[in-house]
Write a structure and sequence with these properties.
alpha+beta; globular; 6-stranded mixed β-sheet; Nuclear Transport Factor 2, Chain: A; NTF2-like_dom_sf
Length: 150
C-alpha cells in the first residue's frame, strides 16, 4: 500500500513539473512576443535582427517580404509600429516549434498616414539552442470583436 501511494505521489510530482515547465515556456514566448512589439515601436533593429531567423518571412496587408526588407522598413520608418496594444494571446507548443497568436490594436504610421487597425498576428518561432527565433509573422485584419480560441 505504501509503495502504491509513494508511486502515485512521485507520478503526480513529475506531471506537475511537466505542466510547470510548459507554462514557463509559454510565458517566455509571450514575453518575447511582447518585447518584440516594443522593439518594433522603438525601431530597435539590433534586437530584432537577433530575434528574426535569417530565412524569416513577414506577411502584411500590402505585401510579403523577408528579414532584410522588414528590418529596413522598421529602420527607415516606412512603417512605424508606433504602439501595439495586445488584447489577447494564445500559445501552442509543438516540440521545438511554437505558434503565438496575438490579437492587437496597432497604431502605426504607414506612408506618413496614421493607421489604427485590429489584427490577429500569427508568429511562428523555433527553439534554437537556448533561445527562440522568429520564423514567420503574419498580420490578419479582423473585426474588433474577434477572439482567439484557446
Amino acid at each position: 500500500m505504501k509503495s502504491t501511494i509513494l508511486t502515485f505521489v512521485f507520478a503526480l510530482f513529475f506531471i506537475q513539473m511537466g505542466v510547470a515547465q510548459q507554462s514557463s515556456e509559454e510565458q517566455t514566448l509571450i514575453k518575447l512576443s511582447h518585447d518584440k512589439w516594443q522593439w518594433m515601436s522603438d525601431k530597435d533593429v539590433t534586437k530584432l535582427d537577433a530575434l528574426f531567423d535569417a530565412k524569416s518571412k513577414f506577411v502584411h496587408m500590402s505585401g510579403t517580404w523577408k528579414k532584410e526588407e522588414e528590418l529596413d522598413i522598421i529602420k527607415t520608418g516606412r512603417i512605424w509600429y508606433k504602439k501595439a496594444t495586445v488584447k489577447d494571446t494564445a500559445v501552442e507548443l509543438f516540440g521545438n516549434t511554437a505558434i503565438v497568436w496575438n490579437r492587437i490594436t496597432l497604431d502605426a504610421v504607414v506612408r506618413e498616414q496614421v493607421a489604427v487597425t485590429e489584427f490577429t498576428v500569427t508568429e511562428v518561432y523555433q527553439k534554437n539552442g537556448q533561445g527562440w527565433k522568429l520564423l514567420a509573422l503574419t498580420f490578419s485584419s479582423v473585426r474588433e470583436t474577434h477572439q482567439i480560441k484557446q
